[in-house]
From TrEMBL:
Residues in HTH gntR-type domain copies: 17-84
Keyword Hydrolase applies: no
Organism: Salinicola endophyticus
Matching Pfam families: FCD (PF07729), GntR (PF00392)
Protein name (record): GntR family transcriptional regulator
Domain of life the protein comes from: Bacteria
Keyword terms, alphabetized: DNA-binding, Transcription, Transcription regulation
InterPro entries the UniProt entry points to: GntR_C, TF_FadR/GntR_C, Tscrpt_reg_HTH_GntR, WH-like_DNA-bd_sf, WH_DNA-bd_sf
Lineage: Bacteria, Pseudomonadati, Pseudomonadota, Gammaproteobacteria, Oceanospirillales
Amino acid sequence: MNAPSQDKGASTAIKGLSRGELAYERIESLLTHMELKPGEYLTLQAVQERVGLGRTPIVEAVRKLSDDTLVEVRAGRGLKVAPIDLARERELLDLRRDMERFAIQRTIKKASHLHVSQMRRLYESLEALNEARETALTADDIRSFNELDHRMDDLILAAAAEPFLVRTLRPLHTIYRRLGFLFLTYCGTDELIHRNIALHQEVLRAILAKDLDGACRASDELMDFAAGMFPCLEMELDPSLLDASIEPFMP
């Protein structure tokens, strides 16, 4: 994979991201879309080449990703992408469920006109992705959805305006976005993918209507969807997809 050009970094910097934040965003995307494999070992130099940024922002981003339990820093060995621990991630879903309700409550109370406008545009983007229900969705569609999901999570956190939520929910979002990408890629059907998109739309619809009970119900349904991923992931996936250090099973 070729390293992103510096022009991409310049355009993203318009959003107000520091170089360290930009490095975090790029590495997070590689993690989420399994381009950095769970359990994979990497050097800092290899990460620099993948994201097209210098050592200082990469070190800053890796430190934060380590705090988020998304990578493990190994003295003298670079870093290791955290493997997918299905038992842990199943348990953490209960924590995420409660925190999402709290974030939604604050978002409904505190969202600015700008946040509301962005949510409407995001809803329309999800609708455009979901409107062709009879059309088979591609891997690019799954990635596009994942990117919209990321924007939705970040927008709700921004509107909620509580730094503790960002520090706690953001790494959880990355964990489940990676898990969801894996599930939809290897176990998903068109029906499941459309259902997932529609659930995200329902959360946004209820927030825009300032319907707290409806938004919390929609969020709980989304968490139920996430819980429903685990049987397939546990029973049908090759373990090497969860941890690249495991030898693939060869029948």
